[in-house]
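User: Modeling request: complex.
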Amino acid sequence: MIRVDIKKQIGRLEFSLNKTFGDGITLISGPSGAGKTTLLKMIAGLIKPDEGIIAFNNLPWFDSRVRINVQPQYRKIGFVFQDYALFPNMSVRQHLEYATTDIAWIERLLKLGRLENFATQRPHQLSGGQQQRLAILRALAIKPQLILMDEPFSALDQKTKTTLIAELQIIFKELKVPILIVSHNPQDIAGIYDDEMAIE
Amino acid sequence: MDLSPLILSLKLGAVTTLILLVIGLPLAWGLSGRRSLFKLIIEAIVTMPLVLPPSVLGFYLLVAFSPEQGFGKWLHKVFDLQLVFSFKGLVLASAIYSLPFMVSPVKSAFQQLPVSLAQASYTLGKTRWQTFWHVLLPNIKPTLITAAVLTFAHTLGEFGVVLMIGGNIPGVTRVASIAVYNSVEQMEYATANVYSFCLLAITFIMVLGVFIYNKYQVKGPLD
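Assistant: Request completed. Predicted assembly structure:
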């Protein structure tokens, strides 16, 4: 469970949110510039809110009143970035090895993302869909306690999307962690999310 | 023919480049982050050698490190360190003079990396130092090599600042650029030509090598 009660000035707009996210999958939708990515980055500790509270399972990650701000390294969040944020100097396998030393888990992830045959390839040698899958696998590699996904399926074709989502659901059930998915297109994950929130 | 000026120049270039890699990289990384007045002041100081006449920089270094007064006197008294008219002094002056050639391109390269690269590394539990070493630095390698080569080449070509603080002591501070000047003053044009051609050839080969390296580093998505 994540409790978010924060305010943040973004340019001329004031972003404010008071919401408790449950343990299932929550879809976050809204128009461009509404602050969806900023919200995910504030939860991850990559952007500091101006004031408020962010608590995970009642443990404060951010509390402006008592000046608590847990660094992103200690939040154990699997973050899928909209631009993938893949490391150009690392191969597919090196991305996962950078995140975890669990070899069996790495092999399983490679199989899940159908990237076993591309393990030695670098991001610029992968297609857009493969890059996006790698970004998802890297986020899962740390066995996160919370998963934040920013437009995670936008570059995938329908067939790959359907297959990957079905396989991800198995992993999600196994990890049993809350998942927040930002998506412009709710149809992408229709039927798999438990809750929905629109940011205006 | 005396080869010591060329050897001294190469030694000075190598030591200066090594020192600037150690000092310049963290400095460039620090300056590449969010701007503040303090950072702007540091950046202005780092950039000064680019626009300042070398003789002016050399003069102030000469005054600052003179063993007769102030800081130089203190260094001499406490550490028995004399920087004026010594190779150590040349290294210090060269490091200051070539600092912008290392810091400016590396800082720009860090700024051009997407901020999400470092953020992704942080979410994987990596510290700032691990992120710097494993993610940021390898992804600016072409710029890093270019900056190191330019620093080396620029140090080879220094004249004014080196002459001011080091003088013209054979085997100690007479680097190739000063040897050229010395030879011309003594009407030894053939010697001056050899030194000049060596400097020209070394710098040309180095710069060409960097251009060739960078050409093959920049790959398209379909390469």
